[in-house]
Design a protein that fits this description.
Layout: H1 6-49, H2 90-94, H3 109-128, H4 132-154, H5 159-172, H6 181-206, H7 213-226, H8 231-253, H9 264-288
Length: about 290
């Protein structure tokens, strides 16, 4: 149910911007620390198999302690980030992109992630309003931002982000928020299995792995949220953009064809478009094809 108060409706985009900026700052922490946590847990598991002594990875607060401890510091000098230095976007601008203590450059990616999260949050609330669909879409978009940057950095899509979003998609569709529950369940299964089959066929023909299992799970997320009907649109758009970008990198930058290109960012972008405008795009296509 949407909130119909005109004052609340008018302030919603501004509130979404502020919330998105704050969440974007938190996503920067997730993007940095989640892969480190995964590598540490993998090292611990490998050491355990080899019967080697290793300090166990702390596992407090449901395994989320690494997101809040230790406090953020400058990676160069260890300077503790103060509250005024951690204001999304604004602090980076005031500090002119440098640590206040050692003057070492601060990556511009931090304010970019914050600004993009804020902008996309406004777009989501503008589209869905303050509704269950709006809240669910925000959660999905925030997860997609983190997944995109992590995949670019590490070429992996963590289960800690993809699997919970599959369940969120199924839960919000119990009452048909985005699609009916049957379509959502079929969509989750079809999303996973469609790319899994492509993966197996590619490996059979070439002897190489063309994508990772995280891609299967991310497409399952979109199936759970949007239903199986929009999966062809997501696959088509992501494949088309991925092919264009990949060919462009090879031709313009001389990128080695054997160097893998993460597919997750293209899936995320296509899924975001389908989330906001998928139904309209499908209807327009059917009308142009004379089927609508």
């Amino acid at each position: 149910m949407a909130i119909a108060d005109p004052t609340v409706t008018a302030l919603a985009p501004f509130a979404a911007l502020l919330l998105g900026l704050v969440v974007g700052s938190f996503l920067n922490v997730v993007i940095l620390r989640l892969p480190r946590r995964m590598h540490a847990e993998l090292a611990e598991s490998c050491a355990d198999l080899r019967d080697e002594a290793i300090e166990p990875v702390p596992n407090r607060l449901f395994g989320l302690d690494y997101l809040i401890s230790p406090p953020s510091t400058c990676p160069n000098c260890g300077h503790a980030i103060r509250a005024w230095e951690n204001v999304p976007v604004l602090s980076w601008l005031l500090l002119r992109g440098r640590c206040s203590n050692c003057k070492n450059p601060i990556s511009i990616r931090y304010p970019i992630v914050e600004a993009v999260t804020g902008a996309l949050s406004v777009l989501v609330i503008w589209q869905f309003g303050i509704t269950l669909a709006g809240v669910a879409a925000l959660l999905l978009v925030w997860a997609l931002i983190a997944l995109t940057v992590i995949d670019i950095d590490e070429q992996l899509l963590p289960d800690q982000l993809t699997l919970p979003m599959v369940w969120v998609g199924l839960m919000v569709n119990i009452n048909g928020t985005f699609t009916d529950l049957t379509s959502a369940v079929i969509g989750a299964a079809a999303g996973y299995l469609s790319l899994w089959l492509v993966f197996q066929l590619f490996r059979l023909l070439t002897g190489r792995e063309g994508m990772g299992y995280g891609d299967f799970k991310l497409l399952a997320v979109f199936g759970a949220f949007l239903g199986w009907q929009l999966l062809p649109l997501v696959i088509l758009m992501s494949s088309l953009v991925g092919a264009v970008v990949g060919i462009g990198l090879i031709v313009l930058r001389g990128r080695d064809r054997q160097v893998p290109i993460p597919f997750g960012p293209y899936l995320a972008a296509a899924g975001f478009v389908a989330l906001l405008w998928g139904e309209q795009i499908n209807r327009s296509y059917l009308q142009l094809a004379g089927l609508g």
